[in-house]
Amino acid sequence: MPSKYKRILLKLSGESLMGKKQFGIDPAMTKLYAKEIKSAVNAGAQVAIVIGGGNIFRGMDAESSGIDRAQGDYMGMLATLMNGIALQSILEHEGMSTRLQSAIKIEQVCEAYIRRRAIRHLEKGRVVIFGAGTGNPYFTTDTAASLRAIEIEADVLLKGTRVDGIYSADPEKDKHAKKFDRITFDQAYQKNLNVMDMTAFTLCQENNLPIIVYDANTPGNLLKVLQGKKIGTLVENK
Predict the structure, then answer these.
(1) What is the pLDDT of residues 99-113, one digit of tens each?
(2) How far is Cα 11 from Cα 171, in angstroms, rounded to an integer?
(3) H or E segment at 222?
(4) Pairing mode, if any, of strands 233-236 and 211-215?
(5) Domains and CATH numbers, the chain
(6) Please, which residues have CB within 8 angstroms of residue 230's CB and are 6 or more apart in sequence?
(7) Closest CA to 155 of 44, 52, 232, 16
(8) Reduced to 3 states, what is the DSSP secondary structure of residue 139?
(9) Cα–Cα distances in Å, from 176 out to 49, 142, 162, 166?
(10) Measured on CA atoms in the order 28, 31, 32, 33, is the torsion positive or negative?
């Protein structure tokens, strides 16, 4: 079954790459994500990716260690590039054509982010990984994902997590938590649901970009989402 969406942006957290490790990158997780992404490409979707860096360094945690917040955020941006390089390598081992673009210029490692070039890569069937966040401190990779999705005119932003959607409370702590199959941006805001940080969330709402939160660790889920099956939670304006 072909993909329901022509162009997607997939947001993965850095922590998701840790797998069962306490730090760094678990090769089993990168291989899992690579196979999921390959299935999406084979279904006809144009795929762009933003990965966090929390498995290596979180800028927001820097202040507690005495590091200036802005400097810490730049360290976090470099961590996202390390994750991007790792995922790029595994994707290419799976036979996919890729490009890694950075919001910070590191010419020896990857391309600088240029919107029109990124779109052209996608049109040619290449998987594009966006690294270094927005290139600015004080912005999360959730915001970077929302911004890049809007810039490349993605049809949907997919947020891969370890839970199977958005709940009324933390399902790992509250067994009575209710899962939402679909919810509007306004309802999510009114219920104070933790979908993404507020800057990222508002960007999606104002630009009418739907978000699907789903369990990225279950093999086959990404393809099911693209085929329009009821996987995860859809957040939209309607």
Answers:
(1) 999 999 999 999 999
(2) 21
(3) helix 221-226
(4) antiparallel
(5) 7-190+203-230+232-236 (3.40.1160.10)
(6) 181
(7) 44
(8) coil
(9) 33, 28, 18, 13
(10) positive
Place of tokens 């993404």: 196
Amino acid (1-letter code) at residue 167? Y
Residues in the chain, how many? 238
- Helices and strands, number each (H, E), in the chain: 7, 11
**Chain centroid, CA 182 distance in Å:** 19
59: pLDDT strictly greater than 80:
no
Concatenate the DSSP letters of all residues of 149-186 into one string: HHHTT-SEEEEEESSSSEESS-TTT-TTPPEESEEEHH
Residue for token digits 């789903």?
214
List the structure tokens of 53: 């860096």
pLDDT of 12-21, one tens digit each? 999 899 888 8
Residue 123, number of CB atoms within 10 A of its CB: 10
The mean of the pLDDT values for the chain is 94
What letter does residue 63 receive in the DSSP assignment? G
Given this model, what pLDDT does residue 60 score? 65
Find the helix packing angle between 27-42 and 69-93, rounded to 10°: 60
Assign 98 to helix, strand or coil.
strand
